[in-house]
Design brief:
250 residues, alpha/beta, single chain
């Protein structure tokens, strides 16, 4: 299986990596947040740029990306603009989504870029990321339900086909067996189809077990909260690390 290696972080090898989100609204808040987050020793930090007040000012975005990189280095940085339809904070048009991601990619101030599977410009954005040696985390989020196992596997396989270095899916359970559906789909993807790391999770309190035990079924990373959670069901990163290490060593 292909390993995604960023300096000393190797995704798809060893203990699942813990990703912690940055949720600040401006540069000052982000820098304060970084000081706290670094104490949790995250493997990767995700900048949730849809929270940024001036997200529609490309120069501000690029400058902020550079500032975050300097404050975090050598911790790998994942840039994410989560669309409103998939649980994000702001509505922007399709053309600006493409322009935003491609501009941030070309700064090379990031290591990974989140590209949503169902964005209309997905192929073009992935091409720019590949050309600039930026890893693609291709994502899909369903806040309404847990799709059928076959659909989850299809979406993850489609992400591979489109050039994702790391396919990622998050779904919402309505009943406990929905969590089993997600974990079963993860195991099937990992054992039968995946040739690279994958990230999967079931959200909210019902799905918390998937964030802790996803590694048993094949998920190579999980999200833990820093100062603020970026999705329902996230566990504080320091607590999450202890739980994961217990599973990994026993």
């Amino acid at each position: 299986m292909k390993i995604v290696s960023i300096r000393d972080t190797h995704i798809g090898e060893g203990v699942p990596k813990i990703i912690v989100p940055l949720m600040g609204r401006n540069e000052e808040q982000l820098l304060l947040e970084i000081k706290t987050i670094k104490q949790a020793a995250p493997d990767i930090v995700e900048w949730r740029a849809d929270m940024l007040e001036e997200i529609e000012n490309l120069e501000v975005v690029k400058k902020t990306a550079s500032t975050i990189r300097d404050a975090l280095f050598p911790i790998p940085l994942l840039f994410t603009f989560r669309s409103h339809r998939e649980g994000g904070n702001k509505i922007i048009d399709v053309a600006y989504y493409k322009e935003l991601l491609e501009n941030v990619i070309r700064t090379k101030a990031i290591d990974l870029i989140d590209v949503e599977l169902f964005s209309s410009n997905v192929r073009e954005i992935v091409e720019v990321a590949h050309a600039n040696d930026i890893y693609v985390v291709m994502s899909n989020h369903d806040f309404e339900k847990t799709p059928a196992k076959e659909e989850i596997v299809w979406r993850l396989r489609r992400m591979q086909e489109l050039g994702a270095h790391i396919p990622k899916i998050a779904v919402m359970p309505k009943i406990p067996t929905d969590v089993l559906t997600l974990l079963d789909a993860t195991y099937t993807m990992k054992t039968l189809h995946a040739d690279r790391p994958i990230i999967t999770m079931s959200m909210a309190s019902t799905g918390v077990v998937s964030r802790i035990a996803g590694q048993v079924f094949g998920s190579d990373a999980t999200f833990g909260s820093g100062l603020e959670a970026s999705a329902p069901g996230q566990i504080p990163a320091e607590e999450l690390r202890k739980m994961i290490e217990v599973l990994h060593t026993n």
